[in-house]
Amino acid sequence: MRAPFIQHLHQLARRVRTFLERVAREEPWLVTQHLFAKLIYGWIFLDTLTVLPLHRELWSIDALVQPREFHNVPFDWVFRVFLRPELRDYHLLFPIAQLALTARAFLSGPSRWLAIAIYVVTMNVDNMAEAILDGGNNLVHLILFYLVLVNVSGTASRHSTARAFSNVAFAACRFQLALLYFCAAMYKLNGPLWQSGMALYYISQVDLFSHPVMFAAMRHFPGLSLMGSYAAIGVQLAFALLVWVPRLRPWVLGAAAMLHVGIAFGMGLFGFGLAMLAMYTAFFSERISALVLSVASRRAELSVWVRPECTRLRGIIAPLVHARVLTELKSPPVAVHGDDSGDAALLVVDRRGTGSFRNESAVLRIAVTVWWLLPFMPLLATLAYIGAFSWWLYPAQRGSTVSAPETNHG
Fold first, then answer.
1. Does residue 57 contact residue 64 with C-beta atoms inside 8 Å?
2. Does residue 182 belong to any structural domain of this protein?
3. Residue 225 and residue 222: Cα distance in Å, rounded?
4. 162 & 280 share domain
5. pTM
6. Which of 152, 208, 318, 363 counts the most CB atoms within 10 A of its CB?
7. Beta bridge partners of residue 304, listed in sequence order
8. 106 lies in some domain
């Protein structure tokens, strides 16, 4: 006869096995996991890109705040390897690798190997400049570890074990966020300034964490501090306890989003605010996640024709054609709305039927389609207005009008 302890161990093993079998049957958050991972990697890309101009002050051997020394232990060889003195002269290697990996994951979709590489590289980059890390970075470090186990590819896993690990790890991401808010609320409830409702008032008096508008509002209307302090605690407690209720989840996420938008603009913590907003997508339903991905992937299907004489313009358009952002036409398209395309050096047609564009308008239409060109829209619009494109990109139009090639109406 087995001892009760052995019987209890067998019962526990059977229950764990039953639980894992149930967890491994399907992946209920497959689309949400894909969206969540893409936004987390997108946030890492933006976070590193914003501080890249300060690379010498942050990561070089002459950094303003020196990191801890490298120790010959396994952890440092994986997550602090760039702290070795002989590698400090190549301090840009890891940040550039991080930007390349996160851009690849965001644009083309993450994978298990990309998740592992991004986790290791991000830990090395952040360990080189621990002085600038905030709560958003620390939370992302935990999430990156979970994402190594999560199926972030957007396609179903083949093996039941992989599905089980993925489901448990993604549930841990959700629980981590709820636990964060619960601990933050409990910590605030134990603070005298939060209990009295004066926490936001004193925070607003610190120049580093206050906007001038917030500073003036708190001084002239002290009641705002009372309402804001209690509202912050209420939102954090509500998130930790009520986000698990599907009917209440949209309201909880909306209130939390408003809280962090206020923190971003009122305290200037935009990076932290964006990180938390990206975290909320872990609680999206499959339908909402699929809708967000479909809207984000709706790119105009543009076809482009470049006059053969415009070699500079062709050299600029060629990488976009090679990247399949644009489709090149061998002959100019049929004019739309009666436009005469005879003197056009660049023609762009939206295959979804929204119209055709020529020369300067075509350049701006391409810029709208290619998301990483959007920051340059003011410059492109100015160049188009002063006619700089006609001088530099369209040499065939200088001084004379080039006759139109024959159009194949096939």
1. yes
2. yes
3. 6
4. yes
5. 0.71
6. 152
7. 328, 348
8. yes
